[in-house]
Amino acid sequence: MTKVRPFLLTVLTGCLVLLTASVPTVRAQAAPAAAGRLPFDAVLVLSPEFCATTFKQGSMWTTGGETFNVGKMACAELEPALKPAYADLTVAAAPPASVNAHFVLIPSFASAHATTSAFAFSNREMDVFLEWTVKDPAGKTVWLQTVQGSSKHHMGNMFTHSHDVKLIVKDSVKDVAAQSAARMEAAPELRALSSQHASAAK
Fold it and tell me: How far apart are CA 21 and CA 70, in angstroms?
């Protein structure tokens, strides 16, 4: 029995060493490769009309009317979210007549919707859909995509309803801004242009 135990300990120790060594490899393969910043200058168009975008839901005669001020929140969240995705990002209130940048980024909200909460202190979910049109200096559309942002929030009662609605809107818009940056960085169409740009610069 005393001879068997050291042998078993040796086998178990060897298995643990092999398992520990293999875990980082598995994780490295499972983790998606970071696309990285696009080597382009871009102009983000945040027009007054876009910043004033709202969506209304419900009515005073049923569940109560709600207004989701998605545009106002987007005009605060999009620039900081997209800035790391480009070499340089500037903001304009309208598409510029002459473009020095490589891309012009034009967002527009397609829709926004929140689930209704049957009871106080329950959870609500919200989805927003942001359509992106990315154009080159010649005005040609090089990327057109709709990006979804989502959030879930614990809602309070009638006294905190307005505050809670602002929170669910903010979180949904922050999510769609982050998703937009990730989608742009990973877009094959923009990546292909990045390769061409890098080759031309050499």
Answer: 48
pLDDT per 10-residue tile (average), the chain, 202 residues:
46 41 30 66 97 84 74 98 96 91 96 74 87 94 97 68 85 97 94 64 48
Question: CATH second-level architecture of 38-201?
Answer: 2-Layer Sandwich (3.30)
User: Token pair of 185, please?
Assistant: 């960085």
d(CA 96, CA 99) in angstroms, rounded, equals 6
121 phi, psi to nearest 5 deg: 60, 35
Sheet containing strand 103-114, edge to edge, reads 86-92, 38-45, 103-114, 123-135, 141-154
Strands (E), 16-160: 38-45, 55-57, 66-68, 86-92, 103-114, 123-135, 141-154
